[in-house]
Structure formats: structure tokens, C-alpha cells
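Assemble and predict.
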Amino acid sequence: MIDILYFASLRENLGQSREQLPLSSAVNDVAQLKTLLAQRDENWQQVFASDLPLMCAVNQNMANDQTRVSDGDEVAFFPPVTGG
Amino acid sequence: MIVSVQREDFSVDQVTRELCGERRDIGAVVSFTGLVRDLTQHADLCALQLEHYPGMTERALESIATEACQRWDIEDVAIIHRVGKLLTQQNIVLVVTLSAHRKQAFEAAEFIMDYLKTRAPFWKKEITLDGEHWVEAHDADQDAAKRWNGNDKQN
């Protein structure tokens, strides 16, 4: 299982702040996870398969599409940050 | 090193005194305070809602502070960032750098702010009389952060 967290406008758009997902053998990295999530419906596709800017972290470290995802990981998706 | 993500307001004097402690080698103290500014394109700003990623945000700030200490000749750093609901002209963020000399302290403080604005997981939402609206990231912030990239290794 992996934990997926959604923050800020992403959370509001997708209607949830976190979920647990069994990790299938088809998902080995962030890119493959995004492909899986994009299949849920049009809204999820818009978020995860379009050019809209999206940042992610794995186990609380900034990640990118190539970052590996393993069982037990915490993956977070969020819009570009706007602190400071 | 002082790194804090907190709802409560901070005092620049108090944080500076705490950071300096009993030191006798500090010649320069540089501090930057960021405030909530009412410059929305919508109706009057009522408040700014600051959200963060508990755990990761603190680590990201510690990482930025550590990098500043490695890259510049500074003695210590404080980064305080507030979250929750903040009103116009209230404090959002404080960066304090200590050094023997001012050039290093100024540059390190600028670096910390540029990296904080592009790498620390915070998100701002404007709350106005017309409704709520998420603030979008600015290209200018990315450009400002890039100039420090030199030897930086990105994930």
C-alpha cells in the first residue's frame, strides 16, 4: 500500500486530502502512478495527464516523474508552491 | 539554527536575541520580514490562508538553512514561517542570518528567501469578500531562485 496526499487547490479539485492505494506491479515510479490516477475520470486526467503544472514528493522529499515508488511510500501531489 | 512553522506571530527582536545567544563574534545581523500585502485583483483582501505539508515543510526549511550555512560564511540562521489565517500587514515569514560581515549575511538571506519561495511546500489562498482564490506561483520567483543554482544538485 502507498499513501497519497493531495494539497491546496488539488485537494479541493479532487475532493480528497489523502487515500491509500494498493501498489500494483504496473506502478514503479511517479510517472506510472500519474498514468494510473489519470484513468479515473476526466477531472483526474486533466490533473495528472495534462500540461498543468504539478509538483510531487515521495517520502517528504521533492520528486519528479522518474522517482521510484515502493510499497509503504508516502506520495504527495500539489500545485507549485507559493510560500514566503 | 532556528526553524519553525507556526500559527503564532513572531517577534524579530526575540528571535534575533535567541539566535545570537551569548555569541561575541557576530558583526552583522540581517533580517527579512515578509508581510501580508493587499494587492489582489479582486475585492478587498480579508485574509490570507497559509497551508503547509506537516513534516515535509519543516524539513525543506531545514535543508535550505543548512545549504545557506554551507555556501556562505554565516554563523547561524533562523527561518520562521507562519501558517493559518493571516490578516493584511501581519507577519508571514522571518529570515535572520548572522555573520562576522554583512555581505555574506545579506546574500545568504536573499538565497534563503528565493529558495523558500520556490521549494518549501506552502500554499496561499486569498479570502476576499467576493470569495476564495488560490494564489498562483510567479515565474519571477523561479527566475530569482535559478541564479543561485550554480553547483546545486536537484532531485
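The first strand of chain A starts at residue 2 and ends at 6.
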